[in-house]
Structure formats: structure tokens, C-alpha cells
Amino acid sequence: MNQTEDDVRRWLSGVFGDTQIADRVVTFHESFMSVYGNRYRTLVEEIKEGLEEIPAHNRYFNDHGSRHTERIFGNITLLMIEYDIELNETEKFLLAAASWLHDIGMSINEKISTSQISIGEDTRTEWFHEIGTTEEEDRTIDDDDLIRKWHHILSWNFVRNNADRLGLDDYYLSKYIAELCRAHRRRADTTRVEESVVVDESSVRHEVALRDLAALLQFADALDIGKERAPEISSYLQSLPEESQKHWKVCQLITGIELDGVDRQLTIKAHHSSERERHLLEMKAEHLYDEYKDIEEIIAGEPFKFHLTDIVVESDHRTAVDHSIRISGREQHLERLSQESESIRERQISNFHDIRNKWSIQVRNRQGDATVSRETTMKLLEEDYDRTHFVRSFDNPMEWDWESDLRVYDASDRTLQVEELIDRPNNKRFKIKFPKTLEANEEYTYTYEYDWEKLFPQEEEVYIVTGNAGEVEFEIRYPEPLEIENVRCREERQNGGLVREIAGEFKSEGMVVSGMVEKKDPMHQVHICWEVV
User: Fold this and answer.
1) What average pLDDT does the segment 191-220 reach?
2) I need a labelling partner for 120 at 20 to 30 A (CA). Which of 7, 35, 89, 299 fits?
3) Is 499 exposed, middle or buried (0-12, 13-18, 19+ CB in 10 A)?
4) Is 251's pLDDT higher than 80?
5) Is the per-residue pLDDT at 234 higher than 60?
């Protein structure tokens, strides 16, 4: 289908009801319309009306219609220009189609039945327990919050079951578009998306960086945060719940975004007139930076190299010229993590006394796949039978199968119950539940161990251990022919201040290095460092 730039511009103007379509958005579309134009036109004409119905069905939702889609195209093309991101025709088509379809789940209130999905991994996921059903059950979702929470799954299911109607006559094209829809929502695990696929059409054969496209769509969607997303007049016409009020209000404060591909910084322009509005802007800066961190390991590497050092808000006071503010999303993010960790640690100190912590790191291959275990002997100080732990990777994200990748048991080899709290690609948090028969001041030993792919892929590695025991024992194992050298430890305060460095005091036997560190303060961290040759 041959399309000139003027043809594409006229068609897009009709679709969006906007005569001022950005040149970069037109160019983006023109580049793939010659190959995928017929399919794309069918998809847009079929889906556009349904998107416009979303606010009518769900009155507290902000804009998820065609203008939202247009702004996503603006954000995608801005990122492409500033970071020299090059996409082939197939990647552009998949991204464009998913931009239209990712929120269609917001207009769906029909549950997913067991006859519509293949039973397998899906049976273990939380969404199926919440919105799945059998043929005998009520198949309508009555809760708007439930629709919002799982709209990405509803969108995924809609695309899979309506591919022909949408003009997606190729099975793989519809499958990949559905996957992009499923991965677009904040906190969705983009590592579940295939890293790279090949699309072989009659006229083209392209390698598609599907996981990177998912991350790009997720962030471009997240960047639609301005007043156009939540018009002020709409909030006057309806009584919004308190949480919705915050999201609508902060959108009305934001006037635009600027991206500097050289300094690697994204700036949100805004205005404010009160401390409450300042707090809302702090929240938005943190949330957006947090969302970027969820996809950073994917999108910052090849092929996109989209790396941000910070996301900041620059806001002018409406009446006082000298009250302008600058808010760092990175600083807000780190402060929140610090507060959360400190809160957990304070509770740990008052409720649990660690007598001994022993860490074992077993690296299985040159790629750095590893099993890490922590054996803790403790005393219960208060009648609190739940203890929170967290683990993370600085190098590689991983999707956990919580039933097999994490194992928790006590000295009697009893399996302990675990509650999943946070499951992000680089950060997992969980709560271990101890037996209620445990008495105060009784010594109790338990172990948690977890598997993580490519946890230690570098030639120089570091692992940070915490806990309130006065001593830390550790051992590190590598397979032949790899060798461990230059093992050393750093004792640091919670705020990151160096206390001391320790080297040359550790035992080496074959492929195992072990040691013990007596901490100056039980609450200090120990950074275990080593090199691999």
C-alpha cells in the first residue's frame, strides 16, 4: 500500500481530529504504512470507537482514547529522536498497533474464562485468581478498580481472541502485539516478553527487539502525564475518590516534558501554588523515576541505549517568583527506599535478635547463574511471627517462579510459609511466617535460599549482606576452571559511610573461599568483594 506523507497526514488528522499532527509522528507512520497499511487502517477503524467509550463506562478513569494514543506516539518519536533509536518497519507497526490496543481492557468488563486460556503458567498468577472464572460462574467484572488493575491482561486477551476482526491475519503479529499490551502496565514484568523474535512476511523479514519495544511502550505511556490527560473541567463535573483526585490534580499541574539526550535527563515542567501541590509533584517525580528503574536494565542496553541519570520536576510558583522548585525523582526514590529499609530494620531490631548469620554463594557457571542462601539463628523478642527479607540484583533482572526459585525451611527441615510482597525484575521482597509455637527468647534457626540467573556475571563482584548479628560468616563457591581471587570485605554504616576494609584474613580451599567478619556495630552492612579469573 503506497502512501505519501500527505496521504498519511490527512488520514491521521481524520483519525485524531487534529490538523496539527507532529511531523515526527507522520514520518513514523509513513515508514511502515507501505508494508502494513491495510492491516493498520483496519485495526484503527475497528478499535477507535471502543477507546472513546472508556470514560463513559468508567467515570473515574482519565483519558485512554485516541488523543492519549496520539500523545504516546509523540513520546515514542521524541525518545527515538533524542536517543537515535532506530526501528525497522515491523517494529514500528507492532509498537503503533499496541499503542492503540494497550488500554482497550479498560472498556471490558467480561471475565476471562478457563475456555479462553491455555492452562499452564497462567493458573499460578494472581490475575487469574482475581478475574478468571469457569463457565458456571458470573462472568462480569463489577469493580472499576479491578478493571484498572488488570486491564493489561484484559487487553492481551482481547487481542488474542479478536485478531481477525482487528485485521491481524498473521498469528505471530497478533501474538506479539498482545504481549506488548500485557507488558505495558507499571510493575508488569517485561522480562516475560521474548527478548528477540523474527517476523517473516511476504515482503519483509525483520528481527524484532520485542522486549525492548515493551519497555519503550511502557515508558512512553507513563510519560503522558500532562493536563490533557485529566482535563480540569472533568474534575469539576464529577465527585472523584480521594486517590483519583491526586492523579487528576497532579496532571493539571504539569505543562510539558523536555528530554535532553546529551545530559541524559528528563525534565517535567510544572507550576504550583501550595505545599500540597509540591507534595503531589514530588510523588509524580518519584513514581516516574521508579517506573524507569523497572525497565532500565532492558532499555538502557543494546540496541536502544536509553539511559537516564535522573527525572526532575522544575516548577514555577504561580504568584511568588522566588519560590520556584526543583525536585529530583532519583533523590525521592532513594529516600523512600531508605525509609522503607530503615522502618523494616527498626522492626527487626525490636522483634528479632540475630545470633548468627551465615551466607553461602554458589555460582554454577561462567554466566554467573547462582544459588544464594542465608542461614540465620535468632531469638524472638516479641510475639511477632512474620519477618520481612528482600533480595536484589544490580546487573540482571529475573522473573521468579516463587514456588521453585525461593525455598525457606528451618533446622528441622520444615518448609516455612512465604508471602510475596514485591516482585520487580531487580528487586524481590517477601515475608517469612514462623511457627506460632515459637516462644520468646527461644533460639530458632531457619534458612532461605534463592536462585538467580546471571547474578554474578562480572569479573569483579560484590554482594551486600545485612542483619543485626554481630558476626557474618560467608563462603563463595565457583566451578572449575574459574578461580576466586582478591577476596576482601568492607564494613559500612547504614548511610553508606565506610567503617573499615578487611583483606587477607579469609580461608581458601580449592574452589571455595570462606571467612568471618566481626562487625563494629551489629547494624552495619558488610560488602563482600571478589574477583574471578
Assistant:
1) 90
2) 299
3) middle
4) yes
5) no
In a domain, 54, yes or no: yes
Q: Which residue did the predictor score with more confidence, 232 or 210? A: 210
- Asked if residue 517 and residue 379 are part of one domain, the reply reads yes
On whether both 276 and 372 belong to a single domain, the answer is no
Question: What percent of the chain has a predicted confidence (pLDDT) above 70?
Answer: 87
Polymer length of the chain: 533
> What is the residue range of 502's domain?
347-532
For residue 53, what are the CA distances in angstroms to 47, 59, 97, 106, 475? 10, 10, 19, 9, 60
What lies within 8 Å, CB to CB, of 301 at 6+ separation is none
Identify the bridge partners of residue 206 per DSSP, sorted by sequence position: 199
Overall domain count for the chain = 3
What would you measure as the largest C-alpha separation in the chain, in angstroms? 78
Average pLDDT score, the chain: 85
Q: Are residues 189 and 155 in the same domain?
A: yes
Whether the per-residue pLDDT at 124 is higher than 50: the answer is no
Which one-letter DSSP state was computed for residue 284?
H
Summarize pLDDT for 287-328 with one digit per residue, the tens: 999 889 888 888 888 888 898 999 999 999 888 777 889 999
Phi then psi for residue 418, to 5 deg, are: -125, 135
Reported as a single tens digit per residue, the pLDDT across 319-369 is: 877 788 999 998 988 888 777 766 666 666 668 889 999 999 999 998 999
CA distance 14 to 348: 60
pLDDT of residue 122: 44
Instruction: Output the CA angle 242-155-108, nearest 5 degrees.
Output: 65
Give 160-183 as a 3 state SS string.
HHCCCCCCCCCHHHHHHHHHHHHC
Let me know whether 142 and 287 are in one domain: no
- Give the CATH number of the domain where residue 453 resides: 2.60.40
DSSP readout, 293-323? HHHHHHHSSTTT----SEEEEEEEESS-GGG
Cβ–Cβ < 8 Å for 114, 108? no
The closest of 306, 253, 238, 308 to 284, measured between CA atoms, is: 253
337 falls within a domain: no
Range 90-105 burial, b when 16+ CB lie within 10 A, else e = bbbbbbbbbbbbbbbb
**Residue 395 gets which letter from DSSP?**
S
Please give the full DSSP string across 19-56, using - where no structure is assigned: S---HHHHHHHHHHHHHHHHHHHHHHHHHHHHHHTHHH
The helix (run of H) or strand (run of E) holding residue 390 is: strand 386-392
